[in-house]
Amino acid sequence: MSSITIFSAPKAFSDPHINTIQRNAIRSWKALGSQVEVFIIGEEDGMAETAAELGVGHISQVARNEEGTPLVNSIFSLAHESATNEILIYLNADILLLPECLPVIESIHQQNKDYLLAGRRWDLSITKELDFSKDWFTGIEQHLIKEGRLCDMAAMDYFIFPRHLFREIPAFAIGRAGWDNWMIYHAVQQPWPVIDITPSHRVIHQIHDYRHLPNGVIHYDLEESQHNILLAGGMRNLFDLLDVSLIFKDGRIRKKKMNLEMWLRKIERFVTPEEQKGWRWRLTRILRKSRRKVSRYR
């Protein structure tokens, strides 16, 4: 099994619920085994203490924008410098990884020199610290089957790629809209194989509120998100999993079969302007709403 480095930029650990779900996430990464190393990046409250307690690496000197938000290019650069393994995983600090991810990553890594792996997340409400004794994932899997909800094609909370890729990234604000879409766009343009691993790799997003953001406003409406979109090259460059043509299913990489949602996305991408104004932007919003309605019935 190839060795893996996981890195993330958690929020402050001061909020009790955020503290709980971030500790759950980090412990799930550690539970993957000795072939996985973990780094958390930043100087937020409680981060150094949590890293020491849970036995993971801590990198504190991350660059920030004028709002104090850590920058994606700095986070990735620090991870590249510190990682000792050939495969990198960036993921949000509220994401639980299950052991099923390891054979998926290994299979694709053995077949490709360059690649980007991503997938849809499952939303699940978790309010308590999990017990990470042997076979911890059995209980959480039962909870997932009963109450989990598979999110849409824009819900991308993790990226898996070889260490030699993504050495240069714009100075996006982490935790704001746009930068994850640019990751897909950039990989498609190279072109590197971009593979949707949703059918074979479940990741669990522990549901939380947005009290950590300015005025509790969801990140799509923040000025930092608008700046991210400009850095990405405009609205036309905001790709998601509907723009990915490959899928890993039943142990094989294969072409996705076209469906109505994907056709609507192709039309949407064709008409989308770079700026959020004008008749083309209004048409884009209509198409986006239409394909999301289609998605709910799939």
Notes on the structure:
The structure is a single chain. The protein has 9 helices and 13 strands. The protein is an alpha/beta fold. β1, α1 and β2 (36-41) form a beta-alpha-beta unit.
SSE layout:
Layout lengths: L3 E5 L7 H15 L5 E6 L5 H8 L2 E3 L12 H11 L4 E5 L3 E3 L3 H11 L4 E3 L2 E4 L11 H12 L1 E2 L7 E5 L16 H11 L4 E3 L6 E4 L16 H10 L13 E4 L2 E4 L4 H12 L6 H19 L2
Parallel strand pairs: 1-2, 1-4, 2-3, 6-10, 7-11, 10-12
Antiparallel strand pairs: 4-9, 5-11, 7-8, 12-13
Helix pairs in contact: 8-9
Keywords:
single chain, 298 residues, alpha/beta, Spore Coat Polysaccharide Biosynthesis Protein SpsA, Chain A, 2 domains, 4-stranded mixed β-sheet, 37% helix, globular
Short description:
Helix 8 (260-271) runs antiparallel to helix 9. It is built from nine helices and 13 strands. It has a five-stranded mixed sheet with strand order 3-2-1-4-9, with helices on both faces. The chain has a four-stranded mixed sheet with strand order 5-11-7-8.
Write down the domain tally: 2
Largest sheet: 5 strands, mixed
User: What is the CATH H-level superfamily of the largest domain?
Assistant: Spore Coat Polysaccharide Biosynthesis Protein SpsA, Chain A
- CATH C-level class of the largest domain: Alpha Beta
How would you classify the quaternary structure? single chain
Principal-axis shape equals globular
Report the structural category. alpha/beta
Radius of gyration: 19 Å
- Could you give the distance between the termini? 35 Å
Number of β-strand runs = 13
State the helicity in percent bands: 25-40%
Per CATH, the architecture of the largest domain is Alpha-Beta Complex
Helix count from the secondary structure assignment: 9
- Residues in β-strands, percent: 15-25%
Unreliable segments of 5+ consecutive residues: none
CATH topology of the largest domain: Spore Coat Polysaccharide Biosynthesis Protein SpsA, Chain A
Mean pLDDT: 90
